[in-house]
Prior knowledge:
Elements lengths: L1 H19 L5 H35 L2 H16 L2 H22 L10 H26 L3 H9 L4 H31 L11 H12 L2 H30 L7
Helix pairs in contact: 2-3, 2-5, 2-7, 2-8, 2-9, 3-5, 4-5, 5-7, 6-7, 7-9, 8-9
Amino acid sequence: METIIGYITDIITGYIELIFGANGWIGMLLSGAGMTILVAIGGFCFGGVVGSFVAWAKIAGGTTARTVANIYTTILRGVPDLLIIYLFYFGGSALLTSIGQMFGSNAFIGLPSFITGVMALGIVSGAYQAEVFRGAYSALSKGELEAAKSVGMHRNLMFRRIIVPQVLRYAIPGLGNIWQLILKQSALISVTGLIELLFVSRMAASATRMPFPFYFTAIVIYLVITAVSGWGFKKMEQRAMRGVKGA
């Protein structure tokens, strides 16, 4: 029994020294986590803009706009996210290289990994956010919209004061789920060389030939980020639903 306890103690001590010691990797892991959060936020915001336009096209657009929006959401929700990342990275790099050749450059010009991540995550999440916004709009009380029109409220004013606040109110739970999805998808950006959490974990595991401590630490960090952001979305939902019957 004492041998087992001693063995477990040695493992824990070694883990603490490896991650949190004087020459530990915790600094690089946290730096990678920060990059993960940044690229996720960028992708989420970009996706929100894209999703808003797509939702508008589905709700109020013409036949062509609705068709394009439906094709976009169908394709982006059906294609693996990694393929979208590769498409943006290699396609964008090929485009930049072609432009450089027009100006006499023969060098390969790669699209920055961070921009690739933001664009890819944004385009993918935009398809999901569009459906969230469309569903939230469907939950609006048609009586309020008709009342606003009956008193002569301008369309832009009605959009700012009635539609946007209430759509966001009903969209928060769905947006929270999409945010969690983006956090997980951000790990895929490591294939482009972005130094985020998974990239650092893989690099540390390769350098020390001790994969378990670093991948375990990465899991813990991801769970902490998920828990904190989930708590934040829950608070926003509670605040947004104040005064709503049944909330």
